[in-house]
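We were asked to recover a plausible sequence for a given structure. The inputs and outputs are reproduced exactly as logged, with field labels preserved.

PROBLEM: sequence recovery
POSITIONS: 485
GIVEN STRUCTURE:
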């Protein structure tokens, strides 16, 4: 059987992400393709990341002539977990184009797991629920042997007009059994070109784990769930070696929800990199409480971690507790200072608009950012995702809009303390405040440093610009606050 793999994330349809020029290959898609190829199937990839029109799949369907189209979204890319409507509509169009040619369609994504009936109604033959490596293999084997696949565990399908779901199957525990992702299917050079144009370096993505055991009540985990399973350091280092030799990346993005949670993992990873004489730079996501365990920060810095994103979320302990975050504000302060002392960049994910957040809570977050001066921040508003306690809490307040069009939408979809425009301005304001203070701090040290990088010098020259922007933002926020009172 000939199997065409694709996915439904189109960077150009998500303008905020596209202008960053930081696209990553569809890692989950090529992992699934590799697993299927290992079983003897003829596979190909139609990569949608760098295009904007689903119709472009038609020439690939005509030339490759697959018997099955597998729309397998990259579950390691947090953007796909947001179930953006632009991408959902693109998936629906690709399903229709394949079915028009008599091609069977299998779908795996966060959105289709949550809304499988919607995808089946659009023409998909099967929707795979949750982690799908073993499920896909069973479906293809069943079709190849002309067997009924409706009872395969981890699927949803329609029989005589009725939807039948067999529920999710148990997640894989031994990730080392998986073959290396099919990197050879990806045309790497367009990715390299965009990265170099926009950022001056080239980054590739890797995943060392699946799942997250923590239970923040706004975080959806439709694919890998609350189980946390890890590849061995040896397995990961082998892939790093392969990627360096074949694609020469300058940097790696470890796209795990939580990197290095398993005790001793980071330390062994550091040792193996040194044994192989591999020097890398990489970025991870972690938690402040995890970073404070044992010598984790030392091992991360030694192994090449150059930037760490943490889910700070809020400077208000009241808000963190309401989120079931399981961390405290003091840990944010301690982890930030420890990372800075080791020369590792620290970046905060921040979230505004959680139910019952007050002006005082917002100010605590702003004060925390201004005091700790993270190197970067990512600001969003609370976003209800199906299957979460947070979604269940606010769903009665949600109107017709239940998804964002793209990741820059930033619209609150439930009642809150302030109107949606307030949070859009707040997002700008905190970015501008941080950049202004960075410029001010760099200006204070202009006579003390022996060498300067371009970013630091640029921040000094832009200080007056950000001063004007923060004054404008502050005035607009004040007006909106007064209108609510």
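RECOVERED SEQUENCE:
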């Amino acid at each position: 059987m000939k199997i065409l793999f694709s996915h439904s994330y189109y960077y150009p349809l998500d303008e905020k992400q596209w202008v960053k020029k930081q696209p990553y290959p569809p890692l989950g898609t090529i992992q699934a393709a590799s697993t299927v190829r290992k079983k003897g199937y003829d596979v190909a990839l139609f990569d949608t990341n760098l295009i904007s029109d689903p119709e472009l799949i038609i020439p690939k369907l005509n030339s490759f002539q697959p018997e099955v189209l597998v729309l397998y979204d990259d579950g390691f890319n947090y953007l796909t977990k947001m179930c953006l409507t632009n991408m959902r509509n693109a998936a629906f169009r690709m399903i229709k184009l394949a079915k028009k040619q008599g091609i069977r369609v299998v779908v795996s994504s966060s959105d289709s797991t949550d809304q499988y009936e919607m995808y089946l109604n659009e023409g998909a033959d099967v929707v795979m629920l949750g982690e799908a490596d073993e499920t896909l293999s069973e479906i293809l084997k069943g079709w190849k042997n002309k067997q009924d696949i409706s009872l395969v565990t981890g699927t949803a399908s329609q029989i005589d007009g009725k939807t039948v779901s067999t529920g999710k199957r148990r997640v894989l525990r031994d990730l080392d059994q998986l073959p290396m992702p099919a990197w050879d299917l990806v045309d790497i050079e367009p990715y390299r070109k965009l990265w170099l144009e926009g950022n001056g370096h080239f980054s590739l993505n890797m995943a060392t784990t699946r799942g997250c055991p923590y239970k923040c009540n706004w975080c959806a985990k439709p694919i890998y769930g609350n189980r946390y399973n890890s590849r061995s350091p040896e397995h990961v280092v082998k892939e790093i070696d392969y990627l360096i030799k074949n694609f020469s990346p300058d940097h790696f993005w470890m796209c795990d929800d939580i990197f290095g949670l398993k005790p001793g993992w980071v330390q062994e990873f550091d040792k193996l990199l040194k044994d192989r004489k591999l020097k890398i730079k990489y970025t991870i996501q972690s938690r402040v409480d995890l970073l404070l365990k044992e010598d984790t920060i030392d091992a991360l810095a030694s192994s090449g971690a150059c930037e760490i994103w943490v889910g700070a979320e809020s400077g208000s302990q009241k808000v963190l507790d309401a989120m079931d975050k399981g961390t405290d504000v003091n840990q944010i302060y301690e982890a930030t200072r420890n990372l800075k002392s080791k020369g590792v960049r620290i970046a905060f994910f921040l979230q505004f608009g959680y139910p019952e957040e007050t002006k005082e809570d917002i100010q605590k977050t702003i004060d925390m950012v201004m005091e700790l001066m993270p190197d970067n921040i990512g600001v969003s508003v609370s976003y209800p995702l199906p299957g979460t306690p947070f979604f269940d809490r606010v769903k009665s307040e949600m109107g017709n809009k239940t998804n964002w069009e793209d990741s820059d939408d930033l619209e609150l979809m439930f009642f809150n303390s302030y109107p949606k425009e307030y949070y859009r301005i707040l997002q700008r304001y905190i970015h501008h405040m941080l950049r202004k203070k960075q410029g001010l701090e760099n200006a204070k040290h202009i006579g003390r440093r022996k060498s300067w990088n371009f970013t630091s010098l640029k921040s000094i020259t832009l200080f007056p610009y950000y001063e004007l922007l923060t004054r404008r933002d502050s005035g607009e926020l004040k007006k909106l606050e007064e209108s609510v009172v």
